[in-house]
Queue: 3 jobs
Job 1
Amino acid sequence: KNVPEVNAILSVVGRQVGVAGIVIYAPNQRIVAWSQFNGNTLALLPPQPGMDGSRWYPNYFTHIEPVFWANERIGTLYLGYHRAYLGVNTEEYLALVALIIIISLGLALLLALKMQRIVSQPILEVAEFLAQVSQRQNYSMRLNHQRQDEIGQLIDNLNATLAVIEQQKGRLSQHIHHIESLVNLRTSELRAANTQLAQQAYYDALTELPNRRLLQDRMRQAFRRLRGSEHQVGALFLDLDGFKQINDAHGHNVGDEVLRVVAAKICTVVRLQDTVARLGGDEFFVLLEDLDNP
């Protein structure tokens, strides 16, 4: 991926008189880029360990320069130069040394920038992916890749972590749903229990008429409404003659049914604002409100 930038450097170097060829190697001795100039040919072999530095041969001069970045060797520069152009000219030799230094520095900077992009780009992609996961709260998302390096391992670990979070979130949702169901059930049961308690507290269990407690409350309200009013309140006390004989002759089940029938009959002959209550046994009470005359 660095070939266009490297070739740009090599094209500048190639204009120097006497340069036979340049080779740039990766740390694994793979040739990254190479070039020959001025119709010259040079037998190029990967540098071997321990061969860094300058070598003099009958027809040409070679220099192998390691390229370092952050104390790590990131490549090797291999320069061939014809001896015929060197001669004994000190200035020419110094120019060659300066050329080697410039190429090394340029190559180091170029490779460093490229390596920075290679490392930073996937990290930026991971950061953007995590931002999308956080924004959408969707832990089923996965970051696809085909890398076999440390970044690939990082992405695999990230995907595995998201899978665990997704699984835990699913379990948590199930627990929350179960708890909500239990809460709704208990709430319904409490409401039913409260309704039943209210029914038992204020109504007669046999006839479902208001009992003494509710009758007393209705009477307090009726008397309170009488203040400043021209209406009157009436009260009827009722009991059943011969009810004991019915219980003795036919049993309590029949007596209970008689009480339910009597209660229903009384309710049919009073108004909606009136109150029919059972005091107990065969005794009933009727509270009549808003009467114009006795």
Job 2
Amino acid sequence: IEERDWSSDVCSSDLQNRTQDKEMSAEGEQKREWTAEELEERKKYIATDEEFQHFLDIMDSDEGFTVVSDDAKKHLKVLTKPAADTPIAAIKVETYYEDLEPEVVYDALHDHYFRRTWDDHMIEGSIIEQVDPFNEVGYYSCKMPFPIANRDYCNHRSWKIFPERKTWVIFNKSVLHPDCPVEPKFTRGWSFFSGYYLQKREEGGCIMKYYTHNDPRGWLPTLAINLVSQKVAPSLLTQLHENALKYPEWKKNNHPDWKPWLTGFDIHEKPYCQHVPTPEAVKNAEKEKAAKAAAK
């Protein structure tokens, strides 16, 4: 699969152009108002308090999980839990970083520009819809080892800071979205529920927990998926740690004032990089829609 060009010409220019967009708005261009129907439709892409609490409950308790490895030297524990409605097991990884504060890791996870510097598996990472300041629908495609087909995902991502707990949360789940038709060159994966949990340590640094319940789909055997996930999940946290250490210095020279996950996304602005489906994907989606309408 041919990788898309993620040079500054493609995405960084969007960020630079926003200043002009804001100036135009200030000069009298009226921002578009959402209709009642549109607002109702957008609600399904907004995480509820119950979903956030559910994620916190998963991270706060290991009940129902089985420890599959516990590396005291690396401070890394891997746990699995069977799911009721799928043979794909959930994976939870628990560790802590003595040399990284949660605020830094949280920013590093959010910064789409930074991810492109260290995620070697990513083919495309872009925004489908910025729903509100704390929810987005995004597109992510990634490389898989030969002969496995590359995967892509359409995920609803949400985030929240809990000051009273000194905790930062980011989680996602896959959704269907009209602007994210299935790309024929990929196998569409499905995230049941996945996310990151960061908590400040009194002695400095942060507790890091990662939970993933993800089905890559396709012809891969379930046993292989569960075994590989137990290896991939902890390696992701190791890679994240190594790269988050570089983030503060990198950020000084790369959009240092751009932290909309803290300052607030403006849903009327263009996303940092808008996902554009391929013509083939759009055509296939239209055919599928017409076939369903005819069947009714």
Job 3
Amino acid sequence: EFWKWKDGDWTEVDQSGDKPSKRTFLGETWDSKRKQLVLFGGQVGDYWSMAYNETYALDVASGEWTELNDGDGPETRMHGQMLYDVQRDRYLLFGGHTDIGDGNDLWAMDPETGRRHWTYTARHSIRHNAIAIGQGRVYLIDRPRARRDLLRRGEVKPGEVHPVGELVCLNAQTGKILWKAENAWGTLLALSDCHDALLMSYQLTQYTLPSERGGRMMVFGASDGTPLWDRNVEYATRPVINDSTVYAQGGAWDLMTGQDRPFKMARSYGCGMISSSQSLMLFRSATLGYFDLVRQ
């Protein structure tokens, strides 16, 4: 079923065309240019049946479905993540679970046919937190998975460390590698277009994987990968870039130099992330907390 919310009421929309079979665990995105909902892959929901690899688009005005496959799209998978790249007018699909394992790849797809423009296949693995897009580029960390993240029980071997990887910058139009930086230790990327700065850090929160160690941040020049600064700093949330300042629970730092900036934030309890506009920061503190960045 497909339902539309309008003027305070739900209305079921009649569907037509190449309607997909029933499925779940699929990737989806909104195509703002064509006003259509786009779906990829998925599975029937029993976890042992084969996954799908079709791409479907639903015109939300007419309820008409169109299948976009032309035979050169991604392999079957479920739990893939999709987004619409407005500037280059294409769909990006990342990761998910294929029928033979994890999908450690990134696809750029044509919105008219579902045809592949380019694919980046990781040497090791890519976290969803470790992808950033902007300036006509795609940034990602290609790094081996941490064994301790995969263990439900048992002990980590003495002296065992999470191997480093490489920071990779791709041309978003062609998928060509523009530059690489070795010894990428982070698990998270954030990009500032206006300052041409790429932040690498951890996502240390109350509920997190063991490999999210925290305690360090590093910023690169986004255009060429030149290291700008690298510091050991203590923080306990996902860092947020706000203009020329990096904020986190624990402090604030100049984006371009790494120097400390005045910032004192306290909250009674909070398991969620910080979100921020230019003048107001919001976070969970028992229920809801805020920080006025203008009059702080």
